[in-house]
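Why does this matter for the project? Reviewers at the last site visit asked to see concrete outputs rather than summary tables. In response, this paragraph embeds two records directly. Each consists of the residue sequence and, immediately after it, the corresponding structure tokens. Nothing has been edited or filtered.
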Amino acid sequence: MPAVLAGAYCEPVPRDPGHTDRLVRRLRWEELDPAWLERLAGLAHEEDLEGGGLLRRPTRVGDPTSGLLTTSDRASARLVARGPVVVAGLGMIAPVLAAYGKACVGRAVLSDGARAARGDVLGVIEGPAPELLRAERPLLNFIQRLCGVATWTRRHVDAMGATPSLLLDTRKTTPGYRMLEKYAVGVGGGHNHRLGLFDRVMVKDNHLAAADGSDSGARILELVRRARAARPDLLIEVEVDRPDQIGPALASGAEVILLDNFPLASLREAVPFVRGRAWCEVSGGVSLATLPELGALGPDFISCGALTHAAPWADVGLDWD
């Protein structure tokens, strides 16, 4: 047994290849709730035109600047990449335009997942000029954000190099935008970890601390036993942050062992030790700089919160014809 794992006890539980599709996924646009997307677009409309979010709303609502034009003034415009981007979120064109006026229409020119170069047209919109002007910024906000997440994710996937490891996102997402951002991660070449608290049992250090303060092996075994009895339909993941916790986590029968914030030297011993006994995930300190070394270790999964919480917005503009 590797020195870093000395003292750990382990009853190997071979991982089940049939679990793969339940462990990670890539959300498809067709899985997103149209009513939810319409609500997000409606909230953007309410913020812009009615002071949504303010305790004291304005007495006069609307857009007085665009109101200088009439609905008889027609216009068309193109969504244009200002630099290289991975396209994502063009499905938001329809709900945003619907929120700002039923007379507007739009269509995607490229498909989500395409790599656009500077000057490439992503989509086109057309309709009454006042409505398009009001919809311009919210539409760009959605497209820039989602293209940004997809482009940023692609950079991280490329940084991993030739490795069998899959790059996962986390729950560090913008409230209300989680499914959109996780969709964009998949478009960029990453994979979705759990979508929320509802679809996996995940025993973390704070669950141990909140229970009785003990992070012992016996406590891990007890919580996994309870989880298995309460939710036999879900896979179980256990987060460990010390080598001596790995053995109890494996002995518990958890399907996934998450090695959190382990130094690289410890990971070199821990990852091979877990491999084949359970699915192995690595997290903590994951960045463009560390991904090549982590990928070379070959864990099953590498999770990175920065895919969503640190993604810069893509430079996409609206050019009027």
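We now turn to the second protein, recorded in exactly the same manner.
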Amino acid sequence: MKIKKVILGLLGTLLVLGIAGYTTSKISPWPMALFLRYAFDYGADKKSEALEKYVPDHITTIQDQCYDPTDPEALLDVYYPENQIVTASIVWVHGGGWLSGNKEQVSNYCKILASKGFSVVSIDYALAPSVVYPGPVRQLTMALDYLIQNQHRLPIRSAKIILAGDSAGAQIAAQTAALLTSPEYARQLGIIPKTPVCTIAGLVLYCGPYDIGKTDIETGFKGLARPILWSYSGTKDFLTDAYFKTASVNQYITKNFPPAFISAGNGDDLLLQSQVLARNLSGLGVPVDTLFFSNVYTPKLPHEYQFNLDNKAGTIALQRSVAFIKTLP
């Protein structure tokens, strides 16, 4: 009975927020952004809880390291295995449509990854609409520089850093890799990173949006694409905004892009964007490993399928990600 009341209360709150978001959606992205943040965070928390049983023992956590002295909320956590040699460092950028999520929601998954012999960093970044594009990209470059500068006291293997992310976090990771390997693109963005290019050994990208212009604005993600992109871009006219077009990573990759592992589920609205990114990178001669599933694979694998380790596909994705990282020099 208590659980039923909680669920009914949650649904009631979502209904109120949804109505408010709908009625003011032509004026400001804020009401809908807050509604989506609430809903997305609820789902992400549930996924994290489901992973708890898979988290191994003997994982050490270093919490709340501030990577930007001017922003006390710019924090990251580091996970690493006890009594193991760290062979690579993974920097994971959480998803959430650029307007929700936090480093804690991927902490269990990061701990699972750390048990494979890696140090894994989970970062927080400022959320839209409070901070708009390309704020998270700029923050990720700062976090990378912080990790390199503090490798003497943190378990960071700077010679083998892997950028990783899910959904919006995959886009942020991919865009950061693109600007680190293309000075011209970095100048267009107005982000001149300190991080040396050679520190990014590869990427692990799940379910990301890599070409904003190819997003189905009206029906994508059940019609939620429009308020999400309005919130992140900072403009209602995001499709015609010249600067926001630079968020379409697929248009700015070069042959110097790091090797990448790319995956998305066969029931994901963003599947095609992952497939196109993989194809374009391969065409440039960039080493690419992919994990895609046939159209007839059942049950259909939804957005963020990789976090479900109760499903065989999620287990395969984890194994393939680890194998890819271990093959990198």
